[in-house]
Every structure is written in structure tokens, then in C-alpha cells.
Amino acid sequence: MSRTGNQLARLESEEVARGVRLLLARPLLAAAHDPDGFDLVRRRREPIMKWFDYYCGWRVHVEPRAGYARLVKTSQRPDRTRAPELDRRRYTLLCLVCAELLAVPTTTADALAELVKQAAALDGLPSFDPSRRIDRSAFTDVLSFLEQQGAIEHNESHVRSDPVVITRLLAAPVSPSTVDTIEDLTRESRYDNAHRSLWQRHSVMRRLVDDPVVYRDDLTPSQLGFLTSPSGRKIVQTGVALAGCTLEERAEGFLLVDTDAIATDTRFPDDDSHAKVAALLLLDRLAKGPARLEDLVDETRELLTRFRTWAKAYQSDGGAGRLAADGLALLEAFGLARTENGTVRRLPAAARYAVEELHD
Length: 360
Prior knowledge:
The chain is mainly alpha-helical and 360 residues long. The chain is 49% helix and 12% strand. It is built from 14 helices and twelve strands. Strand 5 (152-154) and strand 6 form a beta hairpin.
């Protein structure tokens, strides 16, 4: 191959790897929010689609005219690090808002809130009253989430939705209207009669690209056998390299590392939320040994007492318990801590964040 051919091949490999990681970070990639990223995925869509199909068993839809790319991730294990701002209440409102926007693509925020109020009453769901501050805040969070996904344009005068993008928000192998349970919704029939190695390859790669850390104890014997076999290890290492990442292996488990942080959808440690700051401080406490939940609440209460002007949303009654719970939820989501029978213990990956003492 000529020198120019080598350079072109290297450029394609680099762009495919970047496109894979962009979709891992943002499964719904809209041109309106990332025109350069979408253009890259559009140009390299064939090898990107093949990578996800072969290594993860996931489909990728690229719609150049509509201006979006959708990675359809299917998993029976919820990703607790994604969209942490949406609790059960907000997810319910999200469904109602999307349903109303499909019928009325252009409206005002007040009119949309009234439609959602009526829909919640008709469907027997928890009441929604936009005049209540807590409901209004949840409604605003839902609109912000939809705007981040490129599903709506929102300003003070109107809400304009993209019905095509809204219909792509839900990623499921079957239509929700055809199933009765969540388990049925995430069931993938392609594996019913497939060779066992296909499920092993896909399930292992899904864990590696989805989870901040994968512990050996959390893998099934079949998955661990595949990952530690010469043939399985070669497949995994090849796939990881094609995505522009590296695979770290420790005695306790495995970690997929993207040194460019392109595939990172949320960061830790980070000071962009009070919960993340609290989580890091709780991790220091857990470094001394396991702790009861009550101990962590006391630790958080002391923190709030010392810094009266910090984390004002948690300075009210019960705030210490809520902040400790939010911080602990982050630690568990990132594979850094685990709660068993009311006792919280630090997991091996937390050693990455240990504070090292300096010696002369």
C-alpha cells in the first residue's frame, strides 16, 4: 500500500474509533448539538454500524436528512450513571410530555404543562399541578433533558419538537405496546437459538463499554470463561483497540479506558454537582473501613454544618440523609462502593482515588 493509502487507512481507523466513542457517550447524537460529531458518524456509518453489530449486538440508525444518529442499546441491566437527573417522577412526566408533543409538535410551555396535567388525570397517574413548585421544577427538568437530546427547541415563547427524534428516544427490541412486563421489553429473541459464543461476546463487550468497572465476581462463569480464554481475549482486545480504547486488567476485574475521555458520558471525580463532591468525601471515610449508613449520614451532616453556604438545597431538615444517599448512589453506580445489609464498604476500584501521603 502506498504512503497515501496508509495515511487514508489510518485516518479512517481513527475516525471510526472516534465515532464509536461519540455514540457510546451520546446514544442519540443530533447534528443540532454536535454538527462535527454527527458529520463524522454520517461519513463513517458503515464501519461504525458493523463494529456495534459484531461486538455488542447493537443497532445504529443514521438519518442524514433528519440530522441524527441513534445507537439502540439494549440491556437488562439499567445504566445508573446515565440521566441521573431523571427520577421516577420525571420519567413519568417525560413519557407524558413526549406523548403530547407527538400530537402537538409546536406549542407553549404553559399550554404543554396544561396538556400534561389533563393527561395525568385521565390516565390515573400521580397528579401533576404546574402551579406547585416541585411539579414545575420536574417539568422544567424534563424539557431541559429533551432539549439536550435534540428532541425539542425551547425558549420563553414556544416549544417546538422533532417528532422523529422523540420516537427514537426509546431503545427497545420490541414495541412496548406488545409486551406486558419490563423483562419482555428487553428480551432479545435473536439469542434464543444462537450459538452460545455470540451471547458471550456481546454480553461481555456490553459490560465493558457500559460499566465504569467490571468485577470478576459480577460476571457469570460463562462470561468470565470467554473473557479469560485466548480466543475470547483476542476478540475483546481487538474490539477495544478498534474503538480507540485500552483494556486494563487487575486481579479483581477489568476496566475499559478511553484516554481521550470521548466515550465518557459523566465524570467522577468532578465538582459539577454537590452529590459528586459528597461522594468523594464519603469515599475518604470508607477508606478507613466499612461504615453503617447512619455513620455516613452523620459524616455528611458534619460537612453541611461546617459549610453553611454550600449545598443549600440540602441544608434543610433531612438534607444530610438526602445528600448522603445521593453521594452513595453515585459511588455504587461507578462501582466504587457497595451496600450490603446496611453496611457500606469500599470496592477495589476506589483505590484509584485514594489520597496519597507525601513523605520527605
